[in-house]
Amino acid sequence: MLRLQVLYRPWRRPRAAGVSVQNPRRREVASGVSPPHTASSPRTLNLFDREMKRKQKNWAARQAEPMKYAYLREEVASQIADRIYDIARDFPIALDVGCGRGYIGQHLNKETVGKFIQTDIAENALKNTLEMEIPTYSVLADEEFLPFQENTFDLVVSSLSLHWVNDLPRALEQIHYVLKPDGVFIGAVFGGDTLYELRCSLQLAETEREGGFAPHVSPFTAVRDLGHLLGRAGFTTLTVDTDEIQVNYPGMFELMEDLQGMGESNCSWNRKPLLHRDTMLAAAAVYREMYKNEDGSLPATYQIYYMIGWKYHDSQSRPAERGSATMSFRELGDINRLVSQEKKSK
Amino acid sequence: MSAQGTVWGRVRARLRTFPERLAACGAEAAAYGRCVQASTAAGGSLTKDLCAQEFAALRSCFAAAKKTTKGC
Q1: Which residues form the Methyltransferase type domain (chain A) (predicted)?
Q2: pTM listed for this prediction
């Protein structure tokens, strides 16, 4: 069985707190950020063909009805916008990494975000952005090579695009780099349970038809690893919560067509270039038999992890020093008396 | 990429008929699905061509199913 959660193992050498500036000149822009381990690392991950992903996203953005496939990104974008509004602050400059057609920007208003910069690797997506009321600048940039200087943005958002990034630790490091102190990063990525029905059906069908199977659904990050990654990148006050969206499809072929229309086709280097018709047929039959709903439709699960991380600033509350407690837990039962006593003494 | 006459266009058009034709073979598909699902239960193992008979029935039904709307 494919082990999807072993992708990001924790680094052996723990980083010092804060960003260590070894070579100031190299780190003028975020892409100069060095990964959090020694320079001669054998672990440069190269899972995804980024050029292929660019072509797929360009193709998806040039579809006749792009909004037909945008339901998932719209939903997640509205959730992220909710989280932005929950923070009682306004952000003069914000960045959207892997924006697609600007799904997050359309929910934001001028009071919350002053200027909005969107980046994506697909130029067609940036050319067809949705309407939004805040002034926006579109920048063609790869999520792993952000062309921005240090301490530029008050807010960085990323909605469902970091799961195609090769070196996720480094991408998160770069996001941390471009954030101002006391800036916040709000991101949404797919979780390990996403499309498990499709993954299982294809595995079973391929095993039965061909004797073995190749991975067809890309590996996702586990919740634990996500927390580690954010911590290593330097974020503090982390919040990770999960949401499961189940979408019903008439059949497996419709699901695969929708995934292709979203620009989420497989682009890992080890992908099989061919899926036999027999295997597809078998997988559709297995999917229907194993997972169908009462009304005959097939569910597909999308598990989304929403993460919020802050860049350190002196004004942020810190855990209290050890030994600075003035009360003991034993007095918890008497708390009403203690509180009223304090009120009387004031 | 939406050209009709190219290889890509013809392949995609053929693929678009799959859901309909599969819907016409509900019983065979269910039988095959049950066979594979039974092998995932405890004690069973899934090997190549374990459900070859059911799949052959599904395949022949699928090949025989005509699409209801004519034309690519």
Answers
A1: 95-186
A2: 0.81
